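Tutorial, part two.
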Amino acid sequence: MYRLRNNVPDGIFIKDYPYLLSILWQYEFDEPSGMPSAEINKEQLAFDDALDEMDATGLGTMMLAITGNGRREWVWYVTDPQQWLSSLHHCLKGHPAYPLDIQQSEDRGWGTWKTFRDGMK
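Running the prediction step on this input gives:
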């Protein structure tokens, strides 16, 4: 299952968001579909709510989320990874510790998102 923005949001310019942050949450699953249990899904939805707050900061934009096969991954493009992560930590105050692995890379042309989007056409 995936959520994908088909277009760059209004007011966002690719050149201003050169860094890709991949946020990975791996989980155990019993279902043949590879989807999370109801409990894990509830936790992931709480994390999603915090990410919604992040979208409003102007520091980045989420372009893709993929769930299945024991993993959920959020793909963000951000202006400054350290500033974005600092803001995320602020948004997560009061949340439990989530089992996240966050990877950063340069993707100045948003190739990861474009490849996924074009593959879905």
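The mean pLDDT is 94. In part three we will examine how such features are distributed along the chain.
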